[in-house]
Design a protein that fits this description.
It contains 6 helices and 10 strands, in the order βααβαβββββαβαβαβ. It is α/β, with parallel strands linked by helices. The N and C termini lie far apart (37 Å).
């Protein structure tokens, strides 16, 4: 029997959409969980159908390490002690945001999105908004409005009265401190930054 690895602590996987920067790690999980002496039992994978279609096409077969469970706007599932509900986001491919409720606390993760749609209301009053911030005010692309600027994330967080705002999905060519400053100017409260190795209490 092989020694346990960190990935064995994963009980389920939730993927927002099919773009490779959000789903390509599934191929690494496939290899880690499949090609070893004691392959893992199938792990629930919650995602829009397009994620599964892309993964199967890339691997040229259905990976048996995943128990694919398609989700879309309006769906809700239970993962351990957490209730997770999904809503359609404002992106160029089918994308879901997810609201996580457990132990009296709530988190909403945007995935990739622009500001349009009903999703801000769905995130209203959560304890933490984990929001993408692909743009700064100087880099906003009017021809592709399906991402948020840091300022827009701050404006939505303030309007929806969320408890805390954490930014993610900031491209490496941008100075994240500028993103934080722009978000704080709109949110009017301290804003945190999601970086590798950090953790936050919700």
């Amino acid at each position: 029997m092989s020694l346990p690895v960190a990935s064995d602590l994963i009980d389920a996987v939730v993927i927002s959409h099919q773009h490779p920067d959000h789903c390509s790690d599934l191929t690494a999980a496939f290899h880690a969980w499949t090609f070893r002496p004691d392959p893992r039992e199938p792990v629930p994978l919650y995602a829009p159908q397009g994620v599964w279609d892309r993964l199967v096409a890339f691997l040229e077969s259905e990976p048996t390490c995943f128990d694919f469970r398609p989700v879309w706007s309006g769906d809700a599932v239970e993962i351990g002690s957490l209730a997770v509900s999904f809503i359609e986001m404002d992106h160029s491919v089918p994308t879901v945001g997810s609201r996580w409720d457990g132990n009296g606390r709530t988190l909403f993760y945007t995935g990739d999105t622009g500001p349009a749609g009903d999703w801000p209301d769905f995130a209203s009053g959560v304890d933490m908004l984990l929001s993408e911030a692909s743009y700064q005010e100087s880099t906003k692309n009017a021809e592709y409005p399906h991402h948020l600027s840091a300022k827009e994330a701050g404006e939505i967080a303030r309007r929806m009265d969320v408890g805390a705002l954490t930014l993610t999905h900031i491209p490496p060519y941008l100075d994240p401190s500028v993103s934080v400053d722009e978000a704080e100017s709109a949110f009017d409260r301290p804003v945190r930054l999601a970086v590798a190795g950090t953790s936050f209490e919700v």
